[in-house]
Amino acid sequence: MVVVRPIIVTTYEFSTTKHAFHIILSMFFFINIVGNMILGIFTDTTIKMGSRPYKCEEFCESCQMYRPAKAWHCRKCNACILKRDHHCFFFSRCIGLRNQRYYVAYLTYIFISMVYSTYFNFYYVVSKYDEYEIYVSVCRIVNPFLRYLIPEPMGMKDLYVFFLFLNIGLVIWSGGLFVFHARNVLKGETSHEYKENTRSTFKNNWSAMKRNFINVFGEKWYFALVWPLAHSPLPETAED
Q1: Does residue 56 sit in the same domain as residue 170?
Q2: Residues in domain Palmitoyltransferase DHHC (predicted)?
């Protein structure tokens, strides 16, 4: 975006107000992505020895301690995680009750940012081509055999189109993750429960979805969605 935006502004003659708006919006996305990622990584999700008693405790042979029924042991973290969702490769930490808010917000802003950047990259690529030249480049990338019919060396323009396709792929990938985890949040289940199919039948109504949403983002969810550092305590029902 640092490379693309100045050229787009010059080519399409963005007004100062519109340019400033996009800069502020980009910074807002950046702060939320980085902030939620950092807090998601450094928020401790493990159950400590001597923690307060939980309902329906089970004994973990690996940790040699009692844990609540909705906690699972992670071999990579070597600890029991309260309301464990999964072990995140990017965070290198388990996603559980205390940091699921940051993870879902991180996915949300990653997806929105990818759509936003792909939109700008599309206009950047279009500005580099003549009227029909871009379609020829797209066909050559999608079907390499056309290079024999159009014997031109691959240039920077073709590379621009390739990166545009890469961006579109990342939009689809991040969008899939966002939809999957957003669905789990509203349904009130973890990825572990989704895979094991251990969750009871979900009643698709507004009050249930709102309660499940608050169990992840806290009582001040409206602040938690737009600011990573916002204090949003979880209700007591979040552990159920």
Answers
A1: no
A2: 57-196
Domain boundary among 35, 68, 83: 83
C-alpha dihedral (10, 14, 18, 24), degrees to nearest 10: -10
Q: Which of 92, 94, 114 is nearest to 177 (CA)?
A: 114
Instruction: Tell me how crowded residue 130 is: count the other CB atoms within 10 A of its CB.
Output: 7
117 vs 130 pLDDT, higher one: 117
Apex CA 124: angle with CA 122 and CA 129, to 5°? 95
Give, to the nearest 10 degrees, the angle between helix 206-217 and helix 100-128. Answer: 90
The pTM (predicted TM-score) of the whole model is 0.84
Residue among 86, 84, 82, 50 nearest 68 (CA)? 82
Q: Which domain holds residue 77?
A: 46-83
Mean pLDDT of 112-140: 77
Number of domains the chain is built from? 2
Q: What phi and psi, each to the nearest 5 degrees, are found at residue 219?
A: -70, -30
SS3 207: helix
Round to whole Å and give the CA distance between 34 and 136.
38
Burial 106-120 (b: 16+ CB within 10 A, else e): bbbbbbbbbebbbeb
**Residues with Cβ within 8 Å of residue 123, at least 6 apart in sequence:** 8, 11, 12
> pLDDT tens, 43-74?
988 887 655 555 556 788 888 888 887 788 88
**Alpha-carbon gap, residue 164 to 167, rounded angstroms:** 5
* Confidence band, pLDDT 50/70/90 cuts, at residue 213: very high
